[in-house]
Amino acid sequence: MESSLHRQLKYHFAADLNSIEVMVDGFRIDAIDSKGFLVEIQHAGLGSIRDKAKKLLENGHRLRIIKPLISCKWIETLDRDGGELVRRRKSPKKLVAVDIFRELIHFTQVFPNPRLTLEVLSVECIEQRLDRVNKRKRRKQYKTLDQHLAKVGDIHVLKGIADLWRILGNPKLPSTFDSKGLAEYLEQPRWFAQQIAYTLNRCGATEIVGKRGNAIVYSRKGRSFQKVAA
User: If we measure between CA atoms, which residue out of 61, 62, 31, 67 comes closest to residue 48?
Assistant: First the structure.
């Protein structure tokens, strides 16, 4: 079932009311903007829209994928669906722009593409829940009723390789680096730096120049480097 958040974002980006939920090449498209771009609001992982996006781009369409990242979420627990508010709290979870690499790792077959724009949109939302009466250990202790848009924040537009470096803060890396070094420069966990390094390489932003022990060593594309001993 479509959330209010998804519906509100469709109206936000659509050219008009007739440009929402349209069929294009056998696909249902969330919206068409004022410049004729197809717009897809993607709350789920980017991997789940990979094949659809690839086909639309191959057919010559211009595509905008809006990826909302929740930077702030207020959780409202109700006594029943449509009922009274029981409690309200702010979720400690906060996503930032660099978290898009958790999704891009599954989207490198599509991005970058000259007809594709990936837009990382920071949003604040209100999530309404119900406590579960019969709580089981392996189930969530609540049921999500809906999510509502509270505020639209910053937007990071990704069109090419330069935008990937920009969203990382244009780190001043040495001529060659591995995921450990990348993790230190970005102040991120090693496992996440490995995902970032893999994504950068698959998108054409880096090249593999050797190994250091078991670690793959990369060089930024277009930069000189010394061959790394295996």
Answer: 67
Mean of the per-residue pLDDT values of the chain = 90
Query: Does the pLDDT at position 127 exceed 80?
Result: yes
pTM: 0.86
Per-residue pLDDT tens over the stretch 210-229: 998 889 999 998 554 444 44
Amino acid at the residue 158: L
- With both helix axes pointing from N to C terminus, report the angle between 190-202 and 179-186 in degrees, rounded to the nearest 10: 110
Domains and CATH numbers, the chain: 4-170 (no CATH), 171-230 (3.30.63.20)
Question: Is the distance from CB of 224 to CB of 175 less than 8 angstroms?
Answer: yes
CA 169, 35, 10, 104: dihedral to nearest 10 degrees? -30
**Would you state the pLDDT for residue 141?**
80
Rg of the chain's alpha carbons, rounded to an integer? 21
Dihedral sign computed on CA atoms, order 201, 100, 33, 20: positive
**Do 215 and 197 meet the contact criterion of CB atoms below 8 Å apart?**
no
